[in-house]
Structures are given as C-alpha cells and as structure tokens.
Amino acid sequence: MKPFFALLFFTIMSFAVSAQKIERKIIIENNRFYYSTIDEEFQVATLHVGNVSDELKTAKSLALPAGRNFNDPIVPFSWDLTRDDFYAINFLNHPLNDRNEALKRFKLSALQEWSDKVTVLNKIMESVDLTPFAYNDPYLFTIKRSNTLTNFFFDGIVLNDTTFFMAITNSGEISFWNYNRLGWKNSEIQKLSVDAFFTLFEYKKRAYMFLNNGQTYEVSTKTISQAPNKTPGATLSEGVLIINKDDNTVKYIKNSQLDFNVPLNELIKKRAIEIF
After folding, report:
1. Other CB atoms within 10 A of residue 150 CB
2. Structural domain boundaries in the chain
3. Residues 6+ apart with CB under 8 A from 169
C-alpha cells in the first residue's frame, strides 16, 4: 500500500484528468452516455458524461467519491446508475476505507467537475465518510469462507428500483446476491472457473454475466445457465460493453474501434456488435 503521507502530498495539488482507458462499459440513459476512467496513480474514478449525438471527447469529467483497488489482479471499477442515482463498489486502498462498507449510492446531480477545489483528497475522504446503502455481505461471506483470495472478482448492478444484484468469485467458486433494501438473499456456492474480471448487465429485467472470454451467462440467486451471443471471441480486456437503457440493447465494441472524435451514436451504428 502506498504511504498515506505521499498520497496527501500529491493530492493537495489540483487534479488534471488525462486520457485513460474506459472501465468495463458505457451506459446510455435518457440520450446521455456515461463511462468511467481511473486515475492510475490514486485509483480514484471519474465519470464522463455527454450526449449520445456528441463525440466521446466532449464529455464532462465529474469527480467520483469512489474507485478501485490497485492490488493484482486489479478488479475494474464496479458501478451502475439509474435516473439520478449512482451506485458504486468503492474498493479504494486507503487506511480508513472499510470494504465491509464499500457499497455506496449518491446523486448524479450532486457531482462536480474536477477543479482546484475538487481534488483527489476531497474525493477519497468523501468516499470514506459516505454511509453505505448496505453492508457488503457478499464480500464478508467470501473472505470468511477463505482468507486466501485467488481469482477474486466481483461486479454489481441495479436490476430495478428495489434490487441491487452482485456476483462474486474466488478460488473457482461463484455466488450471486440480491439486496432488496430489507436484506440480502444469496445463491448456493457454485463451481465456475473465472480467471479474469467479468461484467454484469441487465437485459429485459434479467441479470447476465459477460466473462472476459466472451461467454455469457444468465444468472440469478437460483440458477446459472449459458446464454448464446453474437460476439464469439470478444474479450473484456480488449473492449467494452455498451448498455443502452433507452432501447434495451447490449452491444460490444473493441477498444481499438473507439474513436473519441466520432459521435457516439454513429460509432455504435458502424462498429458495435449486438450481443443477443
């Protein structure tokens, strides 16, 4: 872990967002696109927001009070949104960040752009102070089952207005979890070899898991079944999902085909592949 005082020294300076890799996915809702990037130095996340008819490069860069870890293997930043609510699993490496309290929810409308007054240190301390919307029982269950983390990956999404869904893997095992504001319900432990990160998405009110090797599964707290898709050979390490909540489609696009100078709607039409 990096020394806290070194972190403090660097973060008193203003934060400049540089070109970084899109993490996991692009979400479209109400004709606006959202994608996240991570500062490689401190692992704090930025949410980029723009209109689907505009180029990706025109997006506003909003500071998020959340981020990912920098342990190996790195688990990409886990997030989702619906209307004005933003959900994040905050796994920032920080002495005060309790991963049992990593599940955060805050208002999109309250987010600010990076500036000399909105710094990395501000966001780290804000993330620590945010009250979780639920305790991270999936993580607690996993580390109680085994204190050795091997092929440990997770993701979480909003399934509907009342349900947050999580999947978590470790040492060849996977479990699925639903939180409905009253408590958690979880699946039985199942065997599934997962050697890289995966991404969850919602499609027609059902949860799906897209593995790094391109395999897709329909998942719930009761069942897991492989689903056919039109993207053979697609890998998450080489591309991102485009989850369009307006027209209820999920597509895949390679990182090499992401042109930040082309309007996103044109880019999707020309280069993205629909999964189903």
Report:
1. 11
2. 4-274
3. 151, 152, 153, 154, 192, 194, 198
Query: Is residue 92 helix, strand or coil?
Result: coil
Q: Please, which residues have CB within 8 angstroms of residue 269's CB and are 6 or more apart in sequence?
A: none
Higher pLDDT, 181 or 188: 188
Question: Is 117 exposed, middle or buried (CB count within 10 Å of its CB: 0-12, 13-18, 19+)?
Answer: exposed
Q: Which residue has the tokens 């401190």?
A: 42
Top-tier CATH class for 4-274:
mainly beta
Amino acid at residue number 215: Q
| Its pTM surpasses 0.70 | yes
- Which tokens belong to 166? 């999580």
CA atoms of 58 and 260, how far apart (whole Å): 8
pLDDT, tens digit, 9 for 90 and up, residues 51-78: 999 999 999 999 999 999 888 778 999 9
List, as one string, the DSSP characters of 182-218. Answer: S-EEEPPPEE----S--EEEEETTEEEEE-TTS-EEE
